[in-house]
Amino acid sequence: MSKSYIRKLGVNRGKPRLWLQGAVLVDAGFAPGDRYALLCRGVAMRLRRLRPGEDPHGAEHAKPRKVSGKGPLPIVDISGAVIPETFGADAVEVCCVPSRGVVVVSVESPGGAS
Fold first, then answer.
1. What is the C-alpha to C-alpha distance for residues 47 and 20, in angstroms, rounded to an integer?
2. Pairing of β 63-66 and β 15-21
3. Which of 13, 18, 42, 91 is deepest in the core (most CB within 10 A)?
4. Across 1-114, where does the E strand assignment appear?
């Protein structure tokens, strides 16, 4: 079974926000300075780590973004309309499931979240 993490959705300057930091990103192989593609489909969001030199647009037509953070602690901060458009206006927490090079974020919990 994959490890999963529950994260609360927040608000920053009046806009919905998803803040991912530390273990959930490290478990997927993300590091500060890495680039990733954000793809939203249905009620899920997928963050895919891009390899150096990889075309960020590729077949997914996803906008490339950069992982923040200092030292070994990666941080991903996603805010704005994409949050309620993906998870619904009433969502208060999401389930994050990391795997090799990918973090899937959804409102559905696969069980066994930590």
1. 11
2. unpaired
3. 18
4. 5-8, 10-12, 15-21, 35-41, 44-49, 63-66, 75-79, 93-99, 102-106
**Taking the alpha carbons of 23, 63, 70, 86 in that order, is the dihedral positive or negative?**
negative
Phi first, then psi: what are they for 13, rounded to 5°? 55, 40
Q: What's the CA angle centered on 52, arms 50 and 54, to 5 degrees?
A: 60
- In the three-class reduction of DSSP (H, G, I as helix; E, B as strand; rest coil), residue 57 is classed as coil
pLDDT tens string 67-103:
998 888 999 999 999 999 999 999 999 999 999 999 9
Mention every residue, 6+ apart, whose C-beta is less than 8 A from residue 40: 46, 82, 85, 86
Q: Whole-angstrom Cα distance, residue 62 to residue 49?
A: 12
Give residue for tokens 């208060």: 92
Burial status of residue 102 (CB atoms within 10 A of its CB: 0-12, 13-18, 19 or more): middle
Q: Where are the alpha helices (DSSP H) in the chain?
A: 23-26, 82-87
